[in-house]
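User: Fold this; tokens only.

Assistant: Input:
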Amino acid sequence: MKKLYPNLLLILSVAIFGLLPPTAAHASPDSVVQNPIYSDGRTQDASQVKVLYKNNTLTISGFSGVATVEVHDLLGKKIADYQDISIQGIFNRNITLTKNSIFIISIKTASFNKSFKVVSI
């Protein structure tokens, strides 16, 4: 019974707060989360900025500049924090995330704050 409680909490969180998009159940392991980002007054469309977690590597692409990248679990616990990193088009970092879990990747710069949801498979 104790092992079911965290899973039940995750399921209820997803159901109540709508943390997964409707197509997330059908996402492939190589799925990419895309969202628009505003940087230096320019609009970058969803095809430019991508967040991918695959083979224990977090990849952020489509952005150039100085940023802080944070990784949190659904309960808000900070998993990783990369302060004032210089991203020149692509950022790769080896990080081990718990399998079959949802994480929030936050990108913060002087001109924008943006969060992405990723599922580790």
